[in-house]
Design brief:
This protein is mainly α and about 525 residues long. The chain has 20 helices and no strands.
Length: about 525
């Protein structure tokens, strides 16, 4: 019996790309897909509001902590072996989450899911960077970016649809067939990387960094629930995070074998990429945390409609991914980044003008343009960040980019929601100062008939109107903060190195084909 003929290199690479994409989409979806199902899970698992929030917190904290050692583990045991174990573990953990019988099991299984899922995005990016030539990396990062960007955007929509039409269990069980296919594909199409057995694991550095990251993530996730720094818990977590980071940096800068190899930060392109990735984390997830509740609470859209309108941002991202790799061949990456920032700033200015009268069409158009701008940022960033980084630092670099995006997305969400709550309270008090029986506007016949302060229903309706207007002002204030951040990031494009190497290589390949 003759052995089957080996696949052509192009087909093998295409199948590897599909496997890397499915792994990316699984992890990116599960970072947000469970949010919509929380109320259903709360009733099914007989959990309190505080307990059910740990379903999200446990995943976020575990993923953040386990992102940092990915570079060492990949070097020690091989990237292929680590990728297969993580996809398999993530799939098993997803099934366990879908079959959890109580809140304790759910929190444990979500932490397990986050631990295995931490490696999926950085490993898939590293795999694609190695599989494609320098001239093809723009296209590869565009394909990879579709999963990373669309996952968080479409997660709530898909989660809501699965929960409404089936049950919350399918939010997790949907990963089973995808995970099985991905594991088989990786076993067949992926080549193993060389291992480095001499590099010791820096346990002190890992524990210190894990304490710093874990305490910071818990603080950011629970701050809004327990009153931020008026809570002893939040203050304790802040102190613990500072201590953890202090010991990590003090130890890493004085040891011969640090847990994180700091030479990755000496590469200017990569260091600049980290700064832009921090901005993307804040801007992408900060606006996501604001737009959906605004549409539901202030305009009155049902959750499904709000999810579809939010999903239109993914259309813009998809459109930009289709053209950005070609643009990278003729235009410097720094100018594409600048265009992306300008588009982000323009849409944030438009969102600052949103009111309860804003139409769904306006929201959809703004979201599409904003999604296009995010794509204009993400692909050039992912390409240029690794343009000059050494190959042996690539896995560690992708892990660091993912860690920065996760941390700053948590910071963005926490700051935006905290500022929204505080500003709503302040503006409510200021508006109420003008709500008196002597206000001429309130004494107009058509207004007085509906907002009659002499009746309970009139006072309740008046308070509802005041609260809505205070919230609209607070949302506008948050969008203004993000607008200022986008404008402040624009001068940073000058620090991005030239991407002419990509353009020159693309031209040589084009001439060779002629």
């Amino acid at each position: 019996m003759t052995a089957p003929a080996p696949l052509p290199p192009g087909m093998r690479r295409s199948m590897l790309t599909v496997c890397a994409m499915t792994a990316t989409i699984m992890q990116a979806l599960d970072s947000t897909i469970a949010n919509v199902a929380l109320p259903y899970m709360q009733g099914s698992l007989s959990a309190s509001l505080d307990q059910i929030n740990w379903v999200l917190t446990s995943y976020i904290v575990a993923a953040a902590i386990m992102t940092s050692p990915i570079g060492w583990v990949a070097d020690r045991f091989g990237r292929k072996r680590l990728f297969i174990v993580c996809v398999g573990g993530f799939t098993v953990a997803s099934v366990l989450c879908g079959s959890a019988q109580n809140i304790e099991q759910m929190v444990l299984f979500r932490a397990l899911q986050g631990s295995f899922g931490a490696a999926l995005v950085p490993l898939s990016q590293a795999v694609l960077l190695d599989a494609y030539t320098l001239a093809e990396r723009g296209a590869a990062m565009a394909i990879w970016g579709i999963g990373v960007m669309l996952g968080p955007i479409m997660g709530p929509t898909l989660g809501g649809w699965l929960t409404d039409h089936y049950s919350w269990h399918w939010v997790f069980l949907i990963n089973l067939p995808i995970g099985i296919v991905t594991v088989i594909g990786l076993m067949i199409f992926m080549d193993e990387t060389p291992t480095e057995n001499s590099r010791r694991f820096d346990w002190f550095g890992f524990v210190a960094l894990a304490i710093g990251i874990g305490a910071l993530q818990i603080m950011l996730d629970r701050g809004e629930q327990v009153g931020w720094f008026s809570s002893t818990e939040i203050v304790s977590e802040l102190v613990l995070s500072i201590v953890g980071f202090y010991f990590f940096f003090a130890h890493s800068l004085t040891t011969d074998n640090p847990f994180v190899r700091f030479e990755v930060f000496r590469d200017r392109n990569f260091a600049t990429g980290l700064v832009f990735m921090a901005f993307i984390g804040v801007a992408l997830f900060g606006t996501m945390a604001l737009v959906s509740p605004f549409m539901q609470n202030n305009i009155g859209y049902p959750v499904t409609t709000a999810g579809w309108l939010l999903g239109t941002r993914g259309i813009g991202t998809l459109l930009s991914m289709m053209v950005i790799s070609r643009l990278l061949r003729v235009i410097e990456a720094r100018w594409l980044l600048l265009v992306g920032l300008i588009m982000m700033a323009g849409t944030l200015y438009q969102m600052e003008l949103f009111t309860e009268q804003t139409s769904g069409t306006t929201i959809a158009v703004t979201s599409v343009v904003q999604g296009f701008g995010i794509g204009m940022l993400f692909v050039p960033l992912s390409t240029v960040a690794f343009l000059t980084l050494r190959n042996d630092l690539r896995t560690e670099g992708t892990a660091m980019l993912t860690l920065i995006r996760n941390i700053f997305s948590s910071i963005g969400i926490s700051v935006m929601i905290a500022e929204l709550t505080n500003t709503t309270t302040v503006m409510h008090a200021r508006i109420v100062e003008n709500v008196t029986p002597f206000n001429d506007a309130l004494r107009m016949p058509n207004v007085a008939s509906a907002l009659n302060m002499a009746t309970d229903s009139g006072r309740a309706l008046l308070d509802l109107v005041v609260t809505q207007q205070a919230a609209i002002i607070a949302y506008a204030n948050d969008y203004k903060m993000l607008l200022v951040l986008a404008i402040a990031a624009m001068p940073l494009v000058l620090f991005v190195g030239s991407s002419k190497a990509v353009q020159q290589l693309a031209k040589r390949e084009a001439h060779a084909m002629d």
